[in-house]
Amino acid sequence: MSINQLGIVKRNIVRADKSAVEKLARFGVATVHEAMGRVGLMKTYMRPIYAGAHACGTAVTVLMHPGDNWMMHVVAEQIQPGDVVVAAVTSECTDGFFGDLLATSFRARGAKGLIIDGGVRDVKDLTAMEFPVFSKAISAKGTIKATLGSVNVPVVCAGVLVNPGDVVLADADGVVVVPAAIAQQVADAAEKRESLEGEKRAKLAAGVLGLDMYKMREPLEKAGLKYID
Hints:
Blueprint: H1 18-24, H2 29-35, E1 47-48, E2 55-64, H3 70-76, E3 83-89, E4 96-98, H4 100-109, E5 113-120, H5 123-129, E6 133-138, E7 150-151, E8 155-157, E9 160-162, E10 167-171, E11 174-178, H6 183-205, H7 210-213, H8 217-222
Parallel strand pairs: 2-3, 3-5, 4-5, 5-6
Antiparallel strand pairs: 1-6, 2-7, 2-10, 8-9, 10-11
Helix pairs in contact: 1-6, 2-6
């Protein structure tokens, strides 16, 4: 993050194609991750705050400083229906940057959820609201409002570069980011993969072994696997 990217709010961003986002929303994170070539997956510590939480939408990014959630109020104004807020912190911090009041504000703007490489609180209320949040931590510790960050600039969240307008998909398996430029391509690849998995699932349910379906026996034999009766 260069110094000239601090203290700014970009109002106009190019979001991924809506039809591509809608198509990606039909698939799970694991399927999309695999379809994209096993890239774009955030670190495994990013977890949903309640069971069953899931979200898919276009990224509106926010960069904050440790212990300071001032920019969360700034990013709220930039949310459009279908967006997912992706929040990064300039250095590691697990304070509770977000709670039910901000969630109420975000939802009023049409937000689909929040992905934050930091802490959140008011989990009981967020769960009752069914507002999807994926976070690094849960913490009751509050924050101040004193230091400028930025909105709608490229950020690194939980190890992944997120550009404003990218597609963010989150479920129980994790969080994956699909660059806007390849959203349709990845959506099509995910659809193809899901179809093939459906065929495999039917074969496995019918009793076919993966050993045979994937033609594993010969390479296993070559690798030295021996059966002993």
